[in-house]
Amino acid sequence: MKLLVGYTAEERGAEAIELASALVASTPDASLHIAIVLPAAAPFSAVYPGGDHGYSTILSAQVDQWAKHALTLVPEGIQASVVARSVSSVAEGLISLAQQVDADGIVLGGRKRHRAGFFMPGAIANALLHSSPVSVFMSSPTAIETLRAANGKLTRLTAFVGDRPGAKDVIELSAQIATACAVPLRVATLVLPYDVQDPDRDLDAHVQATSDYLSQLTASMELDATIDVVVGRNLDEATGQLSWQDGDLALLGSARLAAARRLFIGPKAQRILGKLSVPMGVIPNPGSGN
Fold first, then answer.
1. Is 290 among the domain residues?
2. Cα 56 from Cα 39, distance rounded (Å)
3. Total-model pTM
4. Is 289 within a domain?
5. What is the pLDDT of residues 193-208, one digit of tens each?
6. Cα–Cα distances in Å, from 184 out to 26, 86, 88, 139?
């Protein structure tokens, strides 16, 4: 597996490398391309009136220092290189670099939780979640601790799906990643009372039907996956009731309105992401319509 890491010379950048290393560790030809992407309007990246005054030299030396430190964070056995680029849009710059190196995904460092208790992606992550042609993986300080508790290794992959068209695509792509990472696959879905017309009468039957549907779907794909159907009064409660283990990775699919081979996170997935306490990823719409 080949991943592009959006690196900043701070704790978030180190966490991004930590997550990316865990993702590629067990995969064939594991490699990381660490991207130091600077806004075009950043200090020292422009030519100032009256000549350079040494600003470009200062910037170059600083980037070299960041690059050397970034490489020291990559575990042995994983190939890594660093590329620095000055761009007008950081998100677009990361997408362009990911396409140039044919990366399987982009990895970003995490942000602290909002004071209200939920995880909120930053501006760059949010832009990628609505436009990236490759998967985007993220973490948070809380989530990275669960990875560290598993000695920096993934132990399971959980694919979030619904019972609508598109579930097969999400499961298929998740299974490919789980196989590459040599971890078991869990397929999870969240059921809410308003999913049925009469919850008192129909909810239990709907839960069983959903479980049967996902079991049959994974069996038809010849996948060895566990099925977890969780019921909650609302999306936050259902997400909170799903059990997690150290080393878990959660994956969600793009909204159905996403363009083919593009990523677009819907409001439901955004809400789920906000409540997760493990590293997470969002995969693009493959465009097959399955």
1. no
2. 14
3. 0.85
4. no
5. 888 888 889 999 999 9
6. 13, 40, 40, 20
